[in-house]
């Protein structure tokens, strides 16, 4: 008997790694975990953009704890499939986080360099606490000893796009997370 395979959400994907349904289910659980961790204490959520925008927006809708939101911009991939050099903070916070509980949200934890750099920068602002939440944890790529407090999914060492994750600012709008075809993982000649 033949089984029908579901069509891929984009022809550039080799396969879907995390479905839209799986993301939604995990976000509900993460929202509960985070809400229980902080209780009624207000938290300042700091999203690392652009990658964490989709994840942060959907996650915040599932957290019952009072929230303030700010964003920070960090450059680490520069149109490559692997982080290049030391991450640079391009835009910093507008909110004061001194003596506040901070939840730093990112799309993916791979080498650990980006989150380490941002956490070190946030510590200089003397928050009451800092915790981290990542959608994806790619442990096989870790170069810095860093563990996230809240993790959506642990994934293998494959280059993924979708649900905020990109390659050269493309594919962010896909509702699932998929593995980009290997032959498309070279620096683009797109204009």
Topology readout:
Layout: E1 13-18, H1 20-38, E2 43-49, H2 53-60, E3 67-75, E4 88-91, E5 101-109, H3 113-123, E6 129-137, E7 150-154, E8 160-161, E9 177-180
Parallel strand pairs: 2-3, 2-5, 5-6, 6-7
Antiparallel strand pairs: 1-9, 3-4, 8-9
Taking the alpha carbons of the first and last residues, their distance comes to 46 Å
What percent strand? 25-35%
**Major sheet strand order:** 4-3-2-5-6-7
Order of helices and strands: EHEHEEEHEEEE
What key attributes describe this structure?
191 residues; 9 strands; 3 helices; three-stranded antiparallel beta sheet; Rossmann fold; six-stranded mixed beta sheet; alpha/beta; globular
Fold and architecture overview:
The protein is α/β, with parallel strands linked by helices. The chain has a domain at 21-79 and 87-155: 3-Layer(aba) Sandwich (Rossmann fold). 20% of the residues lie in helices and 29% in strands. Helix 2 links the parallel strand 2 (43-49) and strand 3 (67-75). The chain starts with 12 loop residues before the first strand and ends in an 11-residue tail after the last strand. The model has no long low-confidence stretch (mean pLDDT 91).
What's this model, at a glance?
By secondary structure, the protein is α/β, with parallel strands linked by helices.
């Amino acid at each position: 008997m033949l089984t029908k395979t579901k069509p891929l959400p984009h022809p550039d994907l080799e396969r879907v790694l995390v479905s839209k349904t799986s993301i939604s289910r995990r976000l509900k659980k993460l929202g509960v975990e985070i809400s229980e961790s902080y209780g009624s204490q207000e938290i300042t959520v700091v999203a690392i953009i652009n990658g964490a925008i989709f994840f942060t927006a959907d996650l915040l809708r599932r957290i019952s704890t009072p929230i303030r939101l700010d964003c920070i911009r960090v450059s680490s991939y520069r149109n490559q499939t692997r982080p290049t050099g030391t991450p640079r903070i391009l835009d910093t916070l507008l909110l004061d986080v001194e003596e506040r509980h901070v939840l730093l949200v990112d799309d993916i934890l791979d080498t650990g360099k980006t989150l380490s750099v941002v956490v070190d920068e946030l510590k200089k602002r003397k928050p009451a606490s800092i915790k981290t939440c990542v959608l994806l944890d790619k442990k096989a790529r870790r170069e810095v000893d860093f563990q996230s407090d809240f993790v959506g999914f642990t994934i293998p060492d494959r280059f993924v796009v979708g649900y905020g994750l990109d390659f050269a600012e493309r594919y962010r709008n896909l509702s699932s997370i998929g593995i980009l075809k290997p032959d498309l993982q070279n620096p683009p000649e797109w204009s």
